[in-house]
Fold ParB/RepB/Spo0J family partition protein.
Amino acid sequence: MIDYLIKQLKDAINSIENLDEKIEAMNRVRTALTEVSPFVEPVDCVRWVPADKVQANEYNPNKVASPEMRLLHTSIKLDGYTQPIVVYRLNNGKYEVVDGFHRNRVGKEYADIRERIHGYLPVVVIDKPLDERMGSTIRHNRARGTHQIRSMSDIVIDLSREGWSDEDICKKLGMELDEVIRLKQISGLKEAFANHEFSKSWEEFEKKYHKEEA
């Protein structure tokens, strides 16, 4: 029964001549299969979306030097896209990158890749509020060791303003308390230490490091 349905489905998709319509049909099939899948992971449903609908976020300080970009291009050229781009669907129908900005760039900026994937990009969609998406981006970057400390301090302040406690930041971003305090210190903002919990942590931090310096 399943084999028969698969054949029918393949024949139906192969009969679609318009490329965009064919890709949309494939996305619909993938979405439908996800609805009955025992897996709830984002990667269970990789969709292809037009590259011009995928845009960068404004908070990611992750940067890749030219040699690494060329290597990434070579990797995708020889191995294909082995990892989708993690995105969030915006209200205007576009997608904001959470992780994979440079995979996104390769698909847009290198003609050989852009032509091969027909101007589309492979994405998985996550649905989280902005502060949680920022946390997701940082976790992905830190796991690769590519997050920049100066911009990281700005993000820590932004998350503090969103109501994240020092404990939340440590837990959700995989950071140590000392690291969070140093990043808040870099920011130079007194408001970063306004809450009682962090004030206590700051006193412990000062005692520890002032003692070591002495």
Notes: The chain has a mean pLDDT of 81. The chain has three domains: 1-37, 46-128, 148-213. The longest strand covers residues 120-125. Residues 1-37 form one domain.
